[in-house]
Amino acid sequence: MVLACLLFSLMNASVYAVRWFDAALAAGVISFFRILANLLILLLPALLRGRTKALFGDGRPSLWLRGLFGASALMLSFAAIVRIGPGESAFLTASSGIFVALLGPLVLGQRNSLRAWLAIIGAFSGVSLLFDIDDSHNLLGQSMALLSGLLSALAYLMVARAGRSNPPQTVIFYFCLVALPLHALYFAVFGAELPQAYPVWGLLLLVGIFGSGAQHFMTRAYQRAPAALVSSIGYLAPVLSLVWAVVLFGQIPAQSALLGAALIAVFGVLLPFLR
Fold it and tell me: Which parts of the sequence belong to the EamA domain (predicted)?
Protein backbone atom coordinates (compact mmCIF):
# COMPACT_ATOMS: atom_id res chain seq x y z
CA MET A 1 0.00 0.00 0.00
CA VAL A 2 2.95 2.34 0.61
CA LEU A 3 4.07 1.89 -2.99
CA ALA A 4 0.51 2.52 -4.15
CA CYS A 5 0.48 5.79 -2.19
CA LEU A 6 3.68 6.99 -3.83
CA LEU A 7 2.36 6.16 -7.30
CA PHE A 8 -1.01 7.81 -6.60
CA SER A 9 0.71 11.01 -5.47
CA LEU A 10 2.84 11.07 -8.62
CA MET A 11 -0.27 10.51 -10.70
CA ASN A 12 -2.02 13.45 -9.00
CA ALA A 13 0.96 15.70 -9.64
CA SER A 14 1.07 14.63 -13.29
CA VAL A 15 -2.65 15.37 -13.72
CA TYR A 16 -2.20 18.90 -12.44
CA ALA A 17 0.95 19.37 -14.54
CA VAL A 18 -1.12 18.65 -17.67
CA ARG A 19 -3.06 21.85 -17.05
CA TRP A 20 0.18 23.85 -16.98
CA PHE A 21 0.83 22.88 -20.61
CA ASP A 22 -2.76 22.71 -21.88
CA ALA A 23 -5.23 24.65 -19.72
CA ALA A 24 -8.10 23.93 -22.11
CA LEU A 25 -7.82 20.15 -21.89
CA ALA A 26 -10.85 18.68 -20.12
CA ALA A 27 -10.32 16.55 -17.04
CA GLY A 28 -12.46 13.85 -18.66
CA VAL A 29 -9.89 13.49 -21.44
CA ILE A 30 -7.10 13.02 -18.88
CA SER A 31 -9.05 10.36 -16.99
CA PHE A 32 -9.90 8.63 -20.29
CA PHE A 33 -6.21 8.22 -21.14
CA ARG A 34 -5.67 6.95 -17.61
CA ILE A 35 -8.31 4.26 -18.18
CA LEU A 36 -7.03 3.46 -21.66
CA ALA A 37 -3.49 2.87 -20.38
CA ASN A 38 -4.86 0.71 -17.57
CA LEU A 39 -6.86 -1.40 -20.02
CA LEU A 40 -3.94 -1.90 -22.39
CA ILE A 41 -1.66 -2.97 -19.54
CA LEU A 42 -4.26 -5.59 -18.62
CA LEU A 43 -5.26 -6.79 -22.09
CA LEU A 44 -1.90 -7.12 -23.83
CA PRO A 45 -0.42 -9.75 -21.45
CA ALA A 46 -3.78 -11.57 -21.34
CA LEU A 47 -3.95 -11.70 -25.16
CA LEU A 48 -0.38 -12.92 -25.45
CA ARG A 49 -1.06 -15.71 -22.93
CA GLY A 50 -4.52 -16.51 -24.31
CA ARG A 51 -6.15 -15.82 -20.93
CA THR A 52 -8.62 -13.05 -21.72
CA LYS A 53 -11.53 -15.08 -20.30
CA ALA A 54 -9.82 -15.13 -16.91
CA LEU A 55 -10.18 -11.34 -16.70
CA PHE A 56 -13.96 -11.68 -16.35
CA GLY A 57 -13.69 -13.63 -13.08
CA ASP A 58 -16.95 -14.84 -11.60
CA GLY A 59 -18.88 -11.77 -12.73
CA ARG A 60 -20.48 -11.16 -9.35
CA PRO A 61 -22.46 -7.88 -8.95
CA SER A 62 -19.91 -6.40 -6.54
CA LEU A 63 -17.35 -6.35 -9.38
CA TRP A 64 -19.66 -4.26 -11.55
CA LEU A 65 -20.51 -1.97 -8.64
CA ARG A 66 -16.83 -1.56 -7.83
CA GLY A 67 -16.30 -0.54 -11.45
CA LEU A 68 -19.15 1.97 -11.36
CA PHE A 69 -18.13 3.56 -8.06
CA GLY A 70 -14.42 3.52 -8.88
CA ALA A 71 -14.77 4.99 -12.37
CA SER A 72 -17.08 7.76 -11.16
CA ALA A 73 -14.69 8.54 -8.32
CA LEU A 74 -11.75 8.74 -10.72
CA MET A 75 -13.50 11.20 -13.04
CA LEU A 76 -14.52 13.41 -10.12
CA SER A 77 -11.05 13.22 -8.58
CA PHE A 78 -9.35 14.37 -11.78
CA ALA A 79 -11.87 17.18 -12.19
CA ALA A 80 -11.11 18.29 -8.63
CA ILE A 81 -7.34 18.16 -9.12
CA VAL A 82 -7.39 20.46 -12.14
CA ARG A 83 -9.57 22.92 -10.21
CA ILE A 84 -7.94 23.10 -6.78
CA GLY A 85 -4.60 21.31 -7.16
CA PRO A 86 -3.21 17.93 -6.11
CA GLY A 87 -2.67 18.65 -2.41
CA GLU A 88 -6.03 19.86 -1.15
CA SER A 89 -8.01 17.60 -3.48
CA ALA A 90 -6.03 14.57 -2.31
CA PHE A 91 -6.91 15.17 1.33
CA LEU A 92 -10.60 15.56 0.53
CA THR A 93 -10.53 12.44 -1.63
CA ALA A 94 -8.75 10.70 1.26
CA SER A 95 -11.99 11.04 3.19
CA SER A 96 -12.64 7.65 1.58
CA GLY A 97 -10.95 6.08 4.61
CA ILE A 98 -13.40 7.83 6.91
CA PHE A 99 -16.33 6.77 4.75
CA VAL A 100 -15.04 3.18 4.81
CA ALA A 101 -15.18 3.22 8.61
CA LEU A 102 -18.55 4.96 8.54
CA LEU A 103 -20.12 2.51 6.07
CA GLY A 104 -18.25 -0.63 7.18
CA PRO A 105 -20.94 -1.66 9.71
CA LEU A 106 -23.65 -1.37 7.06
CA VAL A 107 -21.85 -2.97 4.10
CA LEU A 108 -19.46 -5.48 5.72
CA GLY A 109 -21.13 -6.03 9.10
CA GLN A 110 -18.15 -4.60 10.98
CA ARG A 111 -18.63 -2.92 14.36
CA ASN A 112 -17.33 0.49 15.43
CA SER A 113 -16.53 1.42 19.00
CA LEU A 114 -17.51 4.74 20.60
CA ARG A 115 -13.93 5.94 20.16
CA ALA A 116 -14.12 5.11 16.46
CA TRP A 117 -17.29 7.15 16.06
CA LEU A 118 -15.63 10.08 17.82
CA ALA A 119 -12.64 9.79 15.46
CA ILE A 120 -15.00 9.83 12.49
CA ILE A 121 -16.56 13.04 13.80
CA GLY A 122 -13.10 14.55 14.34
CA ALA A 123 -12.04 13.67 10.80
CA PHE A 124 -15.14 15.25 9.30
CA SER A 125 -14.44 18.40 11.29
CA GLY A 126 -11.14 18.51 9.39
CA VAL A 127 -13.03 18.10 6.12
CA SER A 128 -15.15 21.15 6.99
CA LEU A 129 -12.01 23.27 7.46
CA LEU A 130 -10.91 22.50 3.90
CA PHE A 131 -14.08 23.91 2.35
CA ASP A 132 -13.99 27.47 1.01
CA ILE A 133 -17.60 28.64 0.92
CA ASP A 134 -16.59 32.14 -0.29
CA ASP A 135 -15.13 30.89 -3.59
CA SER A 136 -17.59 29.07 -5.84
CA HIS A 137 -14.78 27.75 -8.10
CA ASN A 138 -12.94 26.21 -5.16
CA LEU A 139 -16.18 25.03 -3.56
CA LEU A 140 -17.15 23.06 -6.66
CA GLY A 141 -13.73 21.42 -6.84
CA GLN A 142 -13.81 20.64 -3.13
CA SER A 143 -17.30 19.14 -3.43
CA MET A 144 -16.14 16.99 -6.33
CA ALA A 145 -13.19 15.73 -4.29
CA LEU A 146 -15.37 14.88 -1.30
CA LEU A 147 -17.91 13.04 -3.46
CA SER A 148 -14.98 11.20 -5.05
CA GLY A 149 -13.96 10.12 -1.54
CA LEU A 150 -17.41 8.71 -0.85
CA LEU A 151 -17.54 6.82 -4.14
CA SER A 152 -13.98 5.53 -3.60
CA ALA A 153 -15.03 4.18 -0.21
CA LEU A 154 -17.94 2.33 -1.81
CA ALA A 155 -15.55 0.96 -4.44
CA TYR A 156 -13.12 -0.26 -1.75
CA LEU A 157 -15.94 -1.94 0.14
CA MET A 158 -17.03 -3.67 -3.07
CA VAL A 159 -13.46 -4.95 -3.49
CA ALA A 160 -13.70 -6.44 -0.02
CA ARG A 161 -17.02 -8.06 -0.89
CA ALA A 162 -15.65 -9.38 -4.18
CA GLY A 163 -13.34 -11.54 -2.08
CA ARG A 164 -10.11 -13.29 -2.91
CA SER A 165 -11.71 -15.49 -5.55
CA ASN A 166 -11.19 -12.64 -8.02
CA PRO A 167 -7.57 -11.57 -8.64
CA PRO A 168 -6.56 -7.88 -8.78
CA GLN A 169 -6.50 -8.01 -12.59
CA THR A 170 -10.19 -8.96 -12.68
CA VAL A 171 -11.20 -6.22 -10.26
CA ILE A 172 -9.30 -3.61 -12.28
CA PHE A 173 -10.68 -5.01 -15.56
CA TYR A 174 -14.24 -4.35 -14.42
CA PHE A 175 -13.17 -0.86 -13.38
CA CYS A 176 -12.02 -0.21 -16.97
CA LEU A 177 -15.01 -2.00 -18.47
CA VAL A 178 -17.45 0.35 -16.73
CA ALA A 179 -15.27 3.44 -17.12
CA LEU A 180 -15.24 3.32 -20.93
CA PRO A 181 -19.01 3.80 -21.43
CA LEU A 182 -19.03 6.43 -18.68
CA HIS A 183 -16.42 8.41 -20.58
CA ALA A 184 -18.31 7.87 -23.84
CA LEU A 185 -21.36 9.40 -22.19
CA TYR A 186 -19.25 12.29 -20.90
CA PHE A 187 -17.84 12.99 -24.37
CA ALA A 188 -21.31 12.78 -25.93
CA VAL A 189 -22.55 15.48 -23.56
CA PHE A 190 -19.52 17.77 -23.23
CA GLY A 191 -17.43 16.92 -26.29
CA ALA A 192 -13.68 16.31 -26.27
CA GLU A 193 -10.48 17.58 -27.90
CA LEU A 194 -7.10 15.91 -28.08
CA PRO A 195 -4.06 17.51 -26.40
CA GLN A 196 -2.33 20.27 -28.38
CA ALA A 197 1.06 20.44 -26.63
CA TYR A 198 3.58 17.63 -27.13
CA PRO A 199 4.68 17.45 -23.45
CA VAL A 200 1.08 16.70 -22.51
CA TRP A 201 1.24 13.33 -24.29
CA GLY A 202 4.19 12.34 -22.12
CA LEU A 203 2.37 13.45 -18.98
CA LEU A 204 -0.72 11.48 -20.00
CA LEU A 205 1.47 8.41 -20.39
CA LEU A 206 2.83 8.97 -16.88
CA VAL A 207 -0.69 9.40 -15.52
CA GLY A 208 -1.61 6.05 -17.03
CA ILE A 209 1.48 4.23 -15.79
CA PHE A 210 1.41 5.69 -12.26
CA GLY A 211 -2.34 5.20 -11.93
CA SER A 212 -2.32 1.63 -13.23
CA GLY A 213 0.52 0.61 -10.93
CA ALA A 214 -1.05 2.32 -7.94
CA GLN A 215 -4.43 0.71 -8.52
CA HIS A 216 -2.89 -2.74 -8.86
CA PHE A 217 -1.05 -2.52 -5.54
CA MET A 218 -4.00 -0.88 -3.80
CA THR A 219 -6.39 -3.61 -4.98
CA ARG A 220 -4.03 -6.31 -3.73
CA ALA A 221 -3.76 -4.51 -0.39
CA TYR A 222 -7.54 -4.35 0.08
CA GLN A 223 -7.87 -8.03 -0.76
CA ARG A 224 -5.19 -9.09 1.71
CA ALA A 225 -5.85 -6.86 4.71
CA PRO A 226 -8.80 -5.29 6.59
CA ALA A 227 -10.30 -2.42 4.60
CA ALA A 228 -10.01 0.16 7.38
CA LEU A 229 -6.37 -0.71 8.10
CA VAL A 230 -5.34 -0.39 4.46
CA SER A 231 -7.22 2.89 4.14
CA SER A 232 -5.32 4.30 7.14
CA ILE A 233 -2.00 3.61 5.44
CA GLY A 234 -3.45 5.29 2.38
CA TYR A 235 -3.16 8.68 4.08
CA LEU A 236 0.45 8.73 2.99
CA ALA A 237 -0.82 9.51 -0.55
CA PRO A 238 -2.36 12.91 0.27
CA VAL A 239 0.66 13.85 2.36
CA LEU A 240 2.94 13.16 -0.59
CA SER A 241 0.52 14.93 -2.94
CA LEU A 242 0.68 17.98 -0.71
CA VAL A 243 4.48 17.85 -0.82
CA TRP A 244 4.43 17.80 -4.64
CA ALA A 245 1.90 20.66 -4.66
CA VAL A 246 4.20 22.84 -2.56
CA VAL A 247 7.53 21.83 -4.13
CA LEU A 248 6.51 21.62 -7.79
CA PHE A 249 3.64 24.08 -8.09
CA GLY A 250 4.13 26.50 -5.21
CA GLN A 251 0.67 25.83 -3.78
CA ILE A 252 0.95 26.65 -0.08
CA PRO A 253 -2.30 25.94 1.83
CA ALA A 254 -3.81 28.37 4.32
CA GLN A 255 -3.40 27.60 8.03
CA SER A 256 -7.03 26.48 8.35
CA ALA A 257 -6.58 24.10 5.41
CA LEU A 258 -3.41 22.68 6.94
CA LEU A 259 -5.24 22.13 10.23
CA GLY A 260 -8.09 20.43 8.39
CA ALA A 261 -5.67 18.20 6.50
CA ALA A 262 -3.91 17.30 9.76
CA LEU A 263 -7.21 16.36 11.42
CA ILE A 264 -8.20 14.17 8.48
CA ALA A 265 -4.83 12.42 8.46
CA VAL A 266 -4.52 11.92 12.24
CA PHE A 267 -8.05 10.65 12.84
CA GLY A 268 -7.98 8.66 9.61
CA VAL A 269 -4.82 6.83 10.66
CA LEU A 270 -6.14 6.23 14.20
CA LEU A 271 -9.53 4.89 13.12
CA PRO A 272 -8.60 1.23 12.61
CA PHE A 273 -6.90 1.13 16.03
CA LEU A 274 -10.01 2.46 17.78
CA ARG A 275 -12.46 -0.11 16.50
Answer: 23-131, 140-271
